[in-house]
Structures are given as C-alpha cells and as structure tokens.
Amino acid sequence: MKFRKAKKEDVFFIVKMIAQDMLGKKREDFNDPLPEKYYLAFEQINNDPNQELTVVENEDGEIVGTLQLSFIQYLTYQGGIRAQIEAVRVREDQRGKGMGEKMFLWAINRAKERGAHLIQLTTDKKRPDALRFYEKLGFKASHEGMKLHF
Questions:
Q1: pTM over 0.90
Q2: What residues have CB less than 8 Å from 55, skipping those under 6 apart?
Q3: Domain ranges for the chain
Q4: pLDDT tens for residues 111-141?
Q5: Domain 2-136 CATH class label
Q6: Within its chain, how far is the Cα of 8 from the centroid?
C-alpha cells in the first residue's frame, strides 16, 4: 500500500468510493462526467495547508482507499492542534482485508507528525459496524456530537 496526496485526476475515483457508501448514495451526485462542484471543492482542499486529502494505492497503482485529514489549530490545550479524520473509504472489492485499520494507523501517525495532540472523528449512528471498528482502534465516544444542516 502506498499513501499519497490526492491529485485532480483522482477526484472521480474518490467520489465514486464515497457515493458507493450506503449514506453516500443518498447525498452524492456521482455521474460521468463528474459535476464541476467536486473539482472546485478539491481545489479548495488542495490549496489549504491544513487539509490533506489522501489516496491509497495498491501495488498496481490502483486507488483502493481514501481519507481526509483536517488540522485544526485552536487556543485550548495550550494552543494545540487536533486532527479530524473524515471520508474514510475503502474500495468495495478491498473491504474485509485489514486495509481500513492500516489506513487509520497511517492517519494517526500522520497526525502525530503534524503535532496534533489528538485525532477525532464523527460517525453516523446508522453505522454500528463502523462504531465498533473505531472502538477496536482505541477511539472513545467521549462527547455527544451535534449538527445543524442548512
């Protein structure tokens, strides 16, 4: 497995993985060609030094996974940095092979390299398998998250 920064030509494959998810099917607009809004979002992410959109390649150079790390600077924790991990996806034919765990271990190490004192995530309550997976990796449900959709 090779981890690398995503490139514009990867966006189609990244969105495809996101859209194949049970919740992504309801909220994404995956078409070929891909709507321009995804490429505009990619440019924003790519130009922000506190965002790292990452793809995982297999030995044949095929994209088999993706994740996004956001680094949030704040004043609490003595001016600490926290890492937020989002949009973790493994290609459908690669699931169940331990890739998700390797991706999380990579992300945790990357967050430490960037000086973060913690890594956090949110997960939809409709994903009990994901919750168990995160707990197995050592994540604790320490807070109650809330969202306000517009």
A1: yes
A2: 3, 4, 5, 6, 10, 13, 14, 63, 65, 66
A3: 2-136
A4: 999 999 999 999 888 888 889 999 999 999 9
A5: alpha beta
A6: 16
